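Please decode residue identities from the backbone states below.
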């Protein structure tokens, strides 16, 4: 799985949190917008998977939460998080500005 830590740092505006133990390849990126919406990206580098969720403390349930497997790359392109699968197809595009929004999601082939 390819991702540029600096691209994600720029997009999330914070360092990732390393989960479990150092060197395990599990990371969490978090961004909270001005309306209190919280986007979480969990990366399992060696398993080539990630989990994306959006929530807000004012809502009772998580707005969305899904796992993506066989991930080839995670990129920041013009304030948009682009996650591509191993087939090279875009799995998810999440726009960060002016607010979080799913602009593309591929549910199946």
């Amino acid at each position: 799985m390819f991702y540029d830590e600096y691209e994600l740092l720029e997009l999330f505006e914070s360092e990732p949190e390393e989960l479990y133990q150092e060197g395990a390849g599990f990371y969490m990126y978090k961004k909270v917008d001005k309306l209190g919406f919280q986007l979480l990206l969990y990366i399992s580098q060696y398993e080539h998977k990630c989990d994306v969720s959006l929530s807000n403390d004012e809502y009772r349930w998580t707005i969305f939460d899904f796992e993506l497997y066989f991930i080839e790359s995670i990129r920041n392109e013009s304030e948009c998080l682009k996650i591509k699968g191993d087939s090279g197809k875009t799995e998810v595009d999440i726009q960060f500005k002016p607010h979080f929004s799913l602009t593309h999601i591929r549910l199946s082939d």
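Observation: The mean pLDDT is 92.
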